[in-house]
Design brief:
Blueprint lengths: L16 E7 L18 E6 L5 E5 L6 H4 L1 H6 L2 H12 L7 H16 L8 E5 L5 H8 L3 E5 L3 H11 L2 E3 L8 H4 L2 E7 L8 H6 L5 E12 L1 H5 L14 E2 L2 H10 L2 E10 L5 E9 L1
Parallel strand pairs: 4-5, 4-7, 5-6, 7-8
Antiparallel strand pairs: 1-2, 2-3, 3-9, 8-11, 10-11
Helix pairs in contact: 4-5
Length: 277
């Protein structure tokens, strides 16, 4: 059994890593996943150069999203539907999603010469579909990617978007077409090699297309200590503005905007717009 090996393909090869946080029990609020008989011991190392945080442990969570994530997090398909309806009903001032949608639509209008809707959007790691549902309602054609077949079925049945239960690397642009926007909302922190995932998006972008990212903000969250949700077990990476910029560049993109925000949910978040080099 082995734990994750998170990487940003850093040229320094880990020479500047220093101990960050160590956990001997789940922090309050973390989803109680079934981790088997392995002792709950995990840690983060922090790069003193770019301020990126890397998870370090021997807990095998490689099959988490294909095994019990839906049940542990939402209580099954009915729970996904209820959570979707509850979040969609939030007033804008209490909704992280409302700010996200507004940012993306503003950027798209400037990027596409004032066009307000009618484009195509690929949402990678679409989750229960809050963002997909809102963008669909705003007039965008949305295709979702989710590894769990139950979640993909939920996206099709409850959100009404085309959904694929396989990774983006297994999609064929000739099959699904090209997109004006590719989005990763709180996704890159869950994969061991976010650069590989980002690099895989290039064949799917239409001319003048762009990528939008959201990830946990290590700098702001770490200042409040180890109990923050940004450092929960399913996060292999916690980003800084510098490391997110480097990630985009190493994946063949030019980071056009990288900003820190505190969301209505109280999450510390970095968002970025990336344009192909």
């Amino acid at each position: 059994m082995s734990g994750p090996r998170p990487t940003l393909r850093c040229p320094c090869a880990g020479r500047y890593l220093a101990p960050g946080f160590t956990y001997h029990a789940p922090p309050e609020g973390e989803t109680p996943f079934d981790l088997g008989e392995v002792p709950y011991i995990r840690a983060y190392d922090r790069c003193s150069e770019c301020e990126h945080w890397f998870a370090r442990h021997m807990i095998d969570i490689s099959s988490l999203y294909l095994r019990d994530y839906v049940d542990a997090t939402y209580g099954g398909p009915d729970g996904m539907r209820a959570r979707l309806e509850r979040i969609l009903a939030l007033p804008p001032e209490r909704s992280d999603n409302a700010g996200r949608v507004a940012r993306i639509i503003r950027f798209a209008e400037s990027r596409f010469d004032g066009r307000k809707a009618g484009g195509r959007l690929l949402d990678v790691g679409a989750g229960i579909g809050v963002f997909a549902a809102t963008m669909k309602a705003a007039g965008w054609s949305v295709v979702a990617v989710e590894p769990d077949p139950r979640t993909a079925h939920h996206l099709t049945e409850c959100v009404g978007v085309e959904a694929h239960a396989r990774p983006i690397a297994a999609l064929d642009p000739a099959e699904v077409g090209r997109f004006d926007i590719v989005t990763f909302n709180k996704v890159l922190e869950h994969v061991e090699d976010p650069i590989a995932l980002l690099t895989a998006t290039h064949p799917f972008l239409a001319p003048r297309g762009f990528v939008y990212l959201e990830v946990p903000d290590a700098e702001a969250a770490s200042a409040e200590g180890p109990g923050r949700e940004e450092f929960f077990i399913e996060h292999h990476h916690v980003f800084s503005a510098a490391s997110l910029t480097l990630t985009g560049e190493r994946a063949g993109y030019m980071p056009y905007v990288v900003r820190q925000i505190r969301e209505p949910s109280t999450k510390f978040t970095l968002f970025a717009f990336l344009i192909p080099k």
